[in-house]
Write a structure and sequence with these properties.
This protein has helices spanning 11-23, 34-43, 60-69, 83-91, 104-118, 150-161, 169-177, 186-199, and strands at 3-7, 27-31, 48-51, 74-78, 96-99, 124-127, 130-133, 138-141, 144-145, 167-168, 205-208, 212-215. By secondary structure, it is α/β, with parallel strands linked by helices. The strands form three sheets. Strands 2-1-3-4-5 form a five-stranded parallel beta sheet, sandwiched between helices. It has a four-stranded antiparallel beta sheet with strand order 6-7-8-9, with no helix packed on it. A three-stranded antiparallel beta sheet has the order 10-12-11.
């Protein structure tokens, strides 16, 4: 997981982003204007910056050169939704451009893509006697390989990358099966039961009543 700088002048939005990222294992620092962002950049080390565009002082378009010089990848988060702004942001060197408002799951997924590309994301997940290597798509239990189907692994990866977040069955279908999957949601239930049995994770793969599932870790 990454250490992320959130630069947004709306504290309520920044706090919500920090809360969601902390739940899945990222650590965060916050800045609320351009001057504070530059101070944090000089004093700290970050794997990624989530950068608003409309900021007091230097705006996000002006700040990106400083982040590029420090080799900190940037994802723009902005209410500026015009094609011109999006193209400008990407041409300036941003890794991605996400339009507000956005879903937490989308933000987490896009962060994961950038951190994977930069080689800065967490590569393994361990709980008790089970280790999941997210790069090698390998699952070990007591140092022995666990035989998961491709679909079981994709579901497990979705739970790990969104740990502590409650996911609906429809969201799990979209993430693990693909947006065009036309099966019924009970297929999720069957695969969850198989994962619980194979990994002996009945205690952390939680059923969220009338909603879906959550991988609950602390």
């Amino acid at each position: 997981m990454g250490h992320i700088l959130i630069v947004d002048d709306e504290k309520s939005i920044s706090d919500l982003i920090e809360m969601n990222l902390a739940m899945v294992g990222h650590t965060c620092e916050q800045a609320f204007d351009g001057k504070e962002a530059l101070k944090k950049l000089r004093e700290g080390h970050f794997d990624l910056c989530l950068l608003d565009i409309m900021l007091p002082g230097k705006d996000g378009f002006e700040l990106i050169d400083d982040f590029k010089k420090s080799k900190v990848p940037v994802i723009y988060l902005s209410a500026k939704s015009s094609l011109t702004d999006r193209v400008r942001g990407l041409n300036l060197g941003a890794e991605d451009y996400i339009i507000k408002p956005f879903e937490a799951l989308e933000l987490i997924a896009r962060i994961d893509v950038v951190l994977r590309r930069e080689g800065k994301n967490k590569k393994t997940f361990t709980y008790k006697n089970v280790t999941v290597d997210l790069n090698k798509h390998l699952v070990l239990k007591d140092n022995q390989v666990i035989d998961l189907t491709a679909q079981e692994y994709l579901l497990l990866e979705a739970l790990i990358l969104n740990q502590n977040l409650a996911l609906t069955r429809e969201q799990l279908l979209s993430i693990a099966w693909g947006y065009d999957y036309s099966g019924e949601t009970r297929t999720v239930d069957m695969h969850i039961q198989r994962l619980r049995k194979k990994l002996e994770w009945e205690d952390i793969i939680k059923t969220v009543f009338k909603f879906g599932y959550r991988l609950e870790v602390h």
